[in-house]
Amino acid sequence: MRNSLWIIITIVSALLGFVMGYATAPMMETGMLSGKGGKPASKIESTKELKQYYKDLFKEK
Questions:
Q1: Measured between alpha carbons, how far is 32 from 6 in angstroms, rounded to an integer?
Q2: DSSP string spanning 38-60?
Q3: Which pLDDT score, from 0 to 100, does residue 31 have?
Q4: How many Å separate Cα 23 from the centre of its chain?
Q5: What is the structure's pLDDT at 2?
Q6: Confidence grade of residue 57 (pLDDT, cut at 50, 70, 90)
């Protein structure tokens, strides 16, 4: 009983560490953990502006 408890605790800890490792990188990249924060998205009202916005996004890659 005692050994199986430690095995379960070890497996759960490893899985939680793995998941937190994957969750931390995007949070730092977006500024959520670094405290910098991102720029708020600009409000796009017309369809023409929206199409141009997506064309510009495609060109950046």
A1: 34
A2: PPPPPP--SHHHHHHHHHHHHHH
A3: 61
A4: 6
A5: 82
A6: confident
Report yes or no: 28 and 35 within 8 Å, Cβ to Cβ.
Answer: no
Model confidence pLDDT, tens digit, residues 3-37: 999 999 999 999 999 988 877 766 666 666 656 65
C-alpha span between 19 and 13 (Å, rounded): 10
Within 8 A by CB and 6+ apart from 24, the residues are 33
Give pTM, 2 decimals: 0.43
- For 3: left if phi > 0, alpha if psi spans -120 to 50, otherwise beta; the answer is alpha
